Amino acid sequence: MTDPATLLDRAQALDAQALAEIHDTFYPVIYRYLSYRLDDEQLVEDIASDVFLRLLDNLHRRDRRVRDVRAWLFGTANHLVNDALRRKYRKPVEPLEDHESLADGENPEQAAEHSERQRAVRWAIRRLTPDQQQVLTLRFALEMSLEETSALMNKSVGAIKTLQFRALATLRRHLESRNGE
Questions:
Q1: Consecutive sets of 10 residues in the chain, 181 residues long: mean pLDDT of each?
Q2: What is the pLDDT at residue 155?
Q3: Are 91 and 10 in the same domain?
Q4: Distance CA 10, CA 145 (A)
Q5: Same domain, 19 and 77
């Protein structure tokens, strides 16, 4: 990848190659980040696209508020996730059960147990605060370092450690209460 500062300068000049490089570099990681935060694949695709459209709109307006493309993209994605979750809680919708195919060598009992574990973890994660959800997604799903997470969330490394510790403790409590332990 080109130097991020140079890439941003070129993108702010609306250089098509720079914009394409930003999209190609960051779309997969933004998509993965969103898919860990949301259960709805269509919504993930919509928000991922919206993040990049907002970046383009911002660059067209020649707003010089984008100083770090990566941080701006993750920040925008986080805001859009929070907006989507607020809308969802106002109007809860129960999705139809999807019929997942069995993984190679997996019997129906294993598949059911795996599916139930995933459902329990998603249920517990939805009960965390947005900051707790974000820190766990960045640290574990996207395997970002404390420093990277700190920069993206605009918090100190110590605050990230504390937030992560509390998020994991809360997640564990939610899972234990769901399992009746």
A1: 79 89 93 90 94 90 78 92 82 53 67 82 87 91 90 92 94 85 55
A2: 93
A3: yes
A4: 28
A5: yes
Give yes or no: residues 168 and 122 share one domain: yes
Rounded distance, CA 106 to CA 112, Å? 10
Q: Are residues 33 and 80 in the same domain?
A: yes
String of DSSP letters for the chain: ---HHHHHHHHHTT-HHHHHHHHHHHHHHHHHHHHHH-S-HHHHHHHHHHHHHHHHHHHHTT-TT-S-HHHHHHHHHHHHHHHHHHHHHHS--PPPPP-PPPPTT--HHHHHHHHHHHHHHHHHHHTS-HHHHHHHIIIIIS---HHHHHHHHT--HHHHHHHHHHHHHHHHHHHHHHHT-
Residues 111 and 32 occupy one common structural domain: no
pLDDT per position as a tens digit, 96-136: 455 455 555 667 888 788 888 888 888 888 889 999 999 99
Range of the domain at 21: 1-96
